[in-house]
Fold this protein.
Amino acid sequence: MLTQTFNTRAIKTQINGSKIAPVHPVSDQFGEIAGYVGLIATEFSYRKDEEIYGEDEPAEYVYQVVSGAVRSYKLLSDGRRQIGSFHLPGDVFGLESGPAHRLAAEAIIDTTVRLVKRSSLEKAAGTDVLVARKLWTMTAGELRHAEDHMLLLGRKTAMERVATFLLEMDRRLAVASMMALPMCRRDIGDYLGLTLETVSRALSQLHAQGILGFSGARQIVLRNRQRLHNLDA
Amino acid sequence: MLTQTFNTRAIKTQINGSKIAPVHPVSDQFGEIAGYVGLIATEFSYRKDEEIYGEDEPAEYVYQVVSGAVRSYKLLSDGRRQIGSFHLPGDVFGLESGPAHRLAAEAIIDTTVRLVKRSSLEKAAGTDVLVARKLWTMTAGELRHAEDHMLLLGRKTAMERVATFLLEMDRRLAVASMMALPMCRRDIGDYLGLTLETVSRALSQLHAQGILGFSGARQIVLRNRQRLHNLDA
DNA sequence: CGTCCATTTGAGGTGGATCAACCCTAGTGG
DNA sequence: CCACTAGGGTTGATCCACCTCAAATGGACG
């Protein structure tokens, strides 16, 4: 945020395979837009903690996480931070209807993204109602998440927030019932409106109750999803 | 929410003046859609505290407040409530990209709305990219509000939240520098993630500091917007 | 094997919640 | 017109969930 770290990046430009897949695969959000319209997608990599774009910066590109993880956040003047969402492989982020990004975005770990120019999407949406519909649907999906998150931030207890978080991450990134969290405790706290210490204590308590297991602080196995659901409100 | 109150309502159906105003007036969100496409809008009235639709109910209609005020909210199983937004005259609400409403809606005071069938809008959006674009823009506007509100709920102090609320309401409903709040202290608390007592104490403190004046608990005059801005983070 | 940062754990403080009166004021009915 | 009432609002006293500050522990990486 403060000092932009410049570093070498793997850059690869490719023609998206629009002729190979003229119909939209449900599995790939980006394929449904970029692929469908035959846009050129570029790959780009960011190092851990590198800024992808800042708050209120012109929204020139729309991104999709290929590998890694991204946090989107807002800051108050004194540095308090609220992370609005985490973006994991496959997720599209940075899509704006207006001219500027409403949140900043940073790579949580080394991350590769695909990106397309927003203007290309706008142009495609002006011609093709299916593209226009898809842009709306994606924004509506973000709105749904934000609405759920407002309930969490406004009304849930610390334990309920952590339970909700674990179930969300389990759903989104568990492989063989194990999840490898890319983000640190502070990020989790800033996502849940808590301090990192409170997050750590809640996780310890869940561990002590046998609801989850650790293999290192960021490798978590849920041993009892039902009990976790009960702890969520 | 629990017991639906049925009562007599003023019902008026009208043909929207699409031939009179073929271009979209910026001043009227609904005119930009319904009017533009020449849809039939119906007027409907709800009494204070009456439910307009429930959470997860099929989203059959899209609404615009003509007069009155509406709260959109989510509930936890034990009754804790988070109000996501207040809808004031001119505001469109209940617009969904998916099949169901994500929040419930209730009239805060006696309220009249205009409504159009969601299916009509969908149909229009399938033909006209300008309509499709407008639907996206409206959802994106709601997302922007939700993102700002997440920051408030996750990271602002009680006084900062109340200051933000007052500035928002001042912007949206002040007439001659006086605002007449339609909602009670509990609604404000459930919007800001606070209790009604905390809201009341913050307002009293602002009153004692001369930052605002009361004419009855819900008639508020901001006497010093700058100081209020400073109290906001 | 040592360094550095993330994480955990402990001790104590506090902002806002909770519980409890009390006070307005708008509406009602005599 | 005025007395009464009920619901909303204010204020006070106390509590506690979470924050803050501090220190110890652990794990990844050179």
